[in-house]
Design a protein that fits this description.
Order of helices and strands: HHHHHHHHHHHHHHHHHHHHH
CATH topology of the largest domain: Growth Hormone, Chain: A
Largest sheet: none
Number of domains: 2
CATH superfamily of the largest domain: MFS general substrate transporter like domains
CATH architecture of the largest domain: Up-down Bundle
Distance between the termini: 34 Å
Number of helices: 21
Number of strands: 0
């Protein structure tokens, strides 16, 4: 088959370069904003749709399962319509997912909400597959690492902001939904109250849909190249591509890397989204905003990575250190107090001396769980290159398998919630320990295996 024409870096003029890097930055902001809305959304839908904690955790399942479904088809869709058109299409699909929230909110049918989340995740998977290569090609390759770092900051800052924004828009006046207050109402009054709550999602998601459509048009008519060619491998059809999977999984560092991504994404989503369920069990009024604390620590971790990798520490050592810290912090979350907030207060209480800052004092266990954002920040960028090292002709299928492993975010958090309902959300955190121990093994030895 004829190969796609290469668009050299020089084809993007200086004026176009500024526009292009800005557009990609906005896209990475969108990735983070949409992805980390789920933590607040879980809390909201649990109340509005009268769900059990496990049922509410299906929010993450519906969202992350889309990555598994779209991992293989995305590259073939992009080959047919081009990367820029693929980004525009991904944004439009996300807009459709946002619009599905309107009938879901008016009907209060949880299944329709899950459909909207799956459609949004599908668009996001396509968008990410299309936009990531542009980081390399829109400027000099020697400065690509700096651009990747900037995109990471955009992503994590959005993850910090989005739970706060959604909580402010839809989670006000939640006292009337407490069990003791609802018991005073008849069924009709309850229905009216829950319908009013669910309808709060309509305006934010209409605005989001409009913003995504406008951004799709911006991408479509941007100076970004229509098509790019970043691989020298021959094109295959989807059937031939899938046939390579068993052979690729015989490569030890790739097979173990796929498992590492699977379990890492699972605990990352636990620390980011499921932390709210833990906070809700402790009756913390700010539980819907706890995701923002995890994201804030992830931003700090990402900045540390920018400053230290690879100048002072290599990828494997960074992964090893991160996993060891993750194990220690996870034990802190399991064993520390759920009532005493002396650790967080000692470290960050002084910030409340500023009149414009109003930090709640996190209980020690919640603080340690949020602190996992710091240890998790460097895991994705460290595992990815270690898993792809020396895979040769299997690079493309290996990348797809690593994306498919994001399904860990769909399976592990609901498992944690189901376990938490039986033994308590703090004791259920023990499932994190074998995860971090496995990543320690992969960082120390597993990534070196070649036979």
């Amino acid at each position: 088959m004829t190969k796609t024409n290469v668009h050299p870096i020089q084809s993007i003029k200086p004026a176009g370069y500024a526009i292009s890097i800005s557009i990609i930055g906005v896209l990475f902001f969108i990735f983070g904003f949409v992805t980390w809305l789920n933590g607040t959304l879980i809390q909201f839908l649990q109340t509005a749709c009268e769900l059990t904690p496990f049922e509410a955790s299906l929010v993450t399942f519906a969202f992350y399962i889309a990555y598994f479904v779209m991992a293989l088809p995305s590259s073939f869709v992009l080959r047919s319509i081009g990367y820029k058109n693929g980004m525009a299409l991904g944004l439009l699909i996300m807009a459709i997912g946002s619009l599905i929230f309107i009938p879901a909110a008016y009907s209060r049918m949880f299944g329709i909400f899950l459909t909207g989340l799956f459609v949004t995740g599908t668009g996001l998977a396509l968008l990410q597959t299309a936009s990531n290569p542009y980081i390399t090609i829109i400027g000099p390759r020697e400065s690509a690492a700096s651009r990747i770092s900037i995109m990471g900051i955009c992503n994590k800052m959005a993850g910090f902001i989005s739970p706060l924004v959604l909580a402010a828009l839809v989670m006000h006046g939640m006292d009337k939904f407490k069990k003791e207050n609802l018991q005073l109402l008849d069924q009709l009054q309850k229905s009216v109250l829950f319908n009013e709550l669910a309808s709060r999602l309509v305006l934010p998601y209409i605005i989001m849909a409009i913003a995504l459509i406008l951004l799709a048009l911006m991408v479509k008519y941007s100076p970004l190249p229509d098509k790019i060619d970043i691989e020298d491998q021959p094109e295959e059809n989807l059937k031939a591509f899938i046939k390579q999977i068993p052979e690729a999984l015989k490569i030890p560092q790739l097979f173990l890397g796929v498992i590492s991504i699977f379990v890492y994404v699972g605990v990352e989503v636990m620390a980011g989204d499921s932390i709210g369920q833990f906070g809700k069990q402790l009756q913390l009024s700010y539980a819907p905003s706890l995701t923002s604390f995890t994201m804030a620590f992830m931003v700090i971790g990402y900045i540390i990575g920018i400053l230290t990798i690879p100048k002072y520490i290599g990828q494997a050592k960074a992964l090893l250190v991160s996993a060891i810290i993750g194990t220690i912090v996870a034990l802190g979350a399991i064993l520390s107090s759920v009532h005493n907030s002396n650790i967080f207060s000692s470290l960050f209480g002084w910030l409340n001396n500023f009149s414009f800052i109003h930090l709640p004092m996190l209980p020690n266990a919640i603080f340690f769980l949020a602190l996992l954002g710091l240890s998790n920040a460097l895991m994705w960028p460290a595992i990815w290159p270690l898993a792809l090292q020396d895979v040769g002709k299997f690079t493309k299928i290996a990348s797809a398998l690593l994306v498919m492993a994001i399904i860990g975010g769909a399976l592990i958090p609901p498992t944690y919630i189901a376990l938490g309902q039986r033994i308590g959300f703090q004791q259920a955190l023990w499932i994190m320990i074998p995860v971090y121990l496995f990543i320690i093994y992969y960082a120390a030895k597993g990534h070196k295996l070649r036979r």
